[in-house]
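Hypothesis: this fold can be encoded by more than one sequence.
Test: take the structure tokens below, design a sequence, compare later.
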């Protein structure tokens, strides 16, 4: 959940550290700190506060350093709890992303040996432990200490005995190295390294590496020494900049046409006879014999999973369940033979989803992934999968990645229907036709942004809100509510429309607006009867429907229309107004929509 950056080379390290933290700030932003040539600066608040404080540094010319932006797990956001943490001598500095689970007993053991602590963090325990085992060889001390800890970590360690050397390690939390002629870089994710290089080494779980200005060496779990598997990433830094938009969230919503284009590019066969998913070809045989699929994910990705379930059951008859990662990983899984598990994840680093995939592998199940971040842990842990190619998603609230997840899930449905021969030709034809139309249709939806902004302005002061929908739009009601909660801090709930009268309708009234997701489809009439029940309680209604619904304005004055497409794909277009509403209301309330309070972009701890 935190962001880590480190550098050792020929150039001054401070600008690299600050720029790196700014690129990683979406991972956590309650406090930050850095170590430069043995000097420490730690501050509560955003990276900008730390940047200003670097004026305190007596010498900024050092060419080796490490830095950290924090999302607190143990110990409040204070200067003492901010990273880097030090050993008892103060000569070893460490930054950490993850959680040391057995920190209490380790701390007690060290305190019993007279070692004093200054913070309430699990990380300081690791720094003290390394110092305790240090006899001049930092790599050895780090490996000895790591053998004693339980939990997840991505760490960078420095000692003043070898001022141009960094030791880094990972278990569960992402660590990627950047290779250049001017030095060696390390970070929690590639976006912080793209300004300098596309030559990356993704450290695997259990690996430890030593970086010097001209050299890097990776020690595998077995202790084998090698240079690490270098990979070249496809996306560039420009994609990660705001490109004239006020916020990353706004930019990423308006990327919908190109994101849809990238998700389907090269995957619809030229003659529209079917789809091609290169990443699944190696396991096509196993996919063809799948008896049951479990989709495992967290947050927005789990709502995408719920739509995936509807797609797979409705059109290819594959029994599918959806599991929340944090529950699935601790539950006994009853998976019949021939079952598979599909992880859906933007970051590819969500700890609960990663652990669920490892559990599924241990149970001998086929593991698949729909992942956005190339080379991420879940992409490498699963047997096969499909990349979203949505580019880096910087805003904490998932928008373009969610849209891309729905699109790739529909491609997967066509793929499985194709190899299981369970998809009706007429469905395949219509779905393929409308899939290819989605990028242009998304442009049409975005053209109504100012209308949606006007509705957002009208409702910006609300303190409660209910999203309702049926069938395809029931899972989307959950996603709509989550988006609003994340970016506006308004209490919002998503509900299957037919479920309201079983209790939650008691909440409704003039100060509790309802957003009804109701395209003109097979369940429209049913949803409208629920809307009438809501209006009878005098709740204001916003109706999101399809452009063939000519009676919509009789229902409510606040109508948002989207183009009509195949029912399975309709949520892809209906999602965009939900994202814009949440964005505009968040901005109208003066909030930081890119970095909402208490959140972080990828949840790498439990
Ligand atoms: C969504 O807006 C949130 N950022 C969050 O719920 C997110 O979807 C969840 O943490 C899963 O992340 P992942 O897709 O990277 O696994």
């Amino acid at each position: 959940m935190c962001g880590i950056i480190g550098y050792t080379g020929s150039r001054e390290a401070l600008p690299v550290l600050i720029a790196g933290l700014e690129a990683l700030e979406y991972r956590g932003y309650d406090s930050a700190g850095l170590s430069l040539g043995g000097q420490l600066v730690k501050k509560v608040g955003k990276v900008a506060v730390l940047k200003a404080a670097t004026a305190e540094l007596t010498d900024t010319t050092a060419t080796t350093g490490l830095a950290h932006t924090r999302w607190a797990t143990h110990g409040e956001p204070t200067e003492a709890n901010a990273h880097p943490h030090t050993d008892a001598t103060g000569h070893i500095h460490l930054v950490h992303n993850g959680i040391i689970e057995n920190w209490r007993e380790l701390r007690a053991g060290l305190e019993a040996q007279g070692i004093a602590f200054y913070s309430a963090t699990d990380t300081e325990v690791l720094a003290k432990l390394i110092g305790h085992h240090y006899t001049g060889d930092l790599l050895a001390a780090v490996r000895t200490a790591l053998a004693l800890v339980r939990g997840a970590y991505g760490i960078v360690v420095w000692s003043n005995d070898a001022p141009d050397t960094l030791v880094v390690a990972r278990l569960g939390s992402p660590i990627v190295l950047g290779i250049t002629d001017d030095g060696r870089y390390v970070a929690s994710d590639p976006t912080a390294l793209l300004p300098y290089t596309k030559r990356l080494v993704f450290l695997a779980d259990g690996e430890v590496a030593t970086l010097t200005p001209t050299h890097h060496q990776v020690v595998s779990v077995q202790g084998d020494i090698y240079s690490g598997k270098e990979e070249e990433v496809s996306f560039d830094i420009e994609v990660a900049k705001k490109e004239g938009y006020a916020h990353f969230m706004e930019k990423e919503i308006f990327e919908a046409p190109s994101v849809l284009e990238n998700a389907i590019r090269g995957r619809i066969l030229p003659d529209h006879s079917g789809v091609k998913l290169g990443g699944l070809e190696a396991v096509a045989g196993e996919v063809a014999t799948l008896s049951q699929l479990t989709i495992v994910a967290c947050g927005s990705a789990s709502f995408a999973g719920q739509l995936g379930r509807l797609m797979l059951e409705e059109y290819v008859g594959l029994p599918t369940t959806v599991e929340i990662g944090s529950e699935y990983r601790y539950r006994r899984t009853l998976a019949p033979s021939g079952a598979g598990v599909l992880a859906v994840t933007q970051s590819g680093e969500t700890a609960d989803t990663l652990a669920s995939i490892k559990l599924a592998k241990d149970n001998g199940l086929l593991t698949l992934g729909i992942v956005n971040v190339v080379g991420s842990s879940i992409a490498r842990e699963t047997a096969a999968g499909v990349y979203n190619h949505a580019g880096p998603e910087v805003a904490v609230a998932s928008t373009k990645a969610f849209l891309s997840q729905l699109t790739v899930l529909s491609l997967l449905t066509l793929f499985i229907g194709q190899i299981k021969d369970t998809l009706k030709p007429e469905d395949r034809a219509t779905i393929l036709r409308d899939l290819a139309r989605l990028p242009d249709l998304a442009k049409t939806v975005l053209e109504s942004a100012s209308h949606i902004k006007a509705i957002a302005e009208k409702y910006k002061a609300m303190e409660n809100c209910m999203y309702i929908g049926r069938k395809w739009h029931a899972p989307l009601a959950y996603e709509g509510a989550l988006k609003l909660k994340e970016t506006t801090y308004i209490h919002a709930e998503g509900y299957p429309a037919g479920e309201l009268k079983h209790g939650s309708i008691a909440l409704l009234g003039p100060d509790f607006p309802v957003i009804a997701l109701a395209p003109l489809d097979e369940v429209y009439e049913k949803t409208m009867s629920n809307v009438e029940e809501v209006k009878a309680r005098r709740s204001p209604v916003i109706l999101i429907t399809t452009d063939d619904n000519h009676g919509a304005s009789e229902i409510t004055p606040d109508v948002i229309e989207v183009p009509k497409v195949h029912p399975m794909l309709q949520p892809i277009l209906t999602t965009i107004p939900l994202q814009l509403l949440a964005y505009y209301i968040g901005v109208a309330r003066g909030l930081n929509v890119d970095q909402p309070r208490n959140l972080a972009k990828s949840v790498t701890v439990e």
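The two ends are 10 Å apart (CA to CA). The chain is about 35% helix and 20% strand.
Hypothesis status: open.
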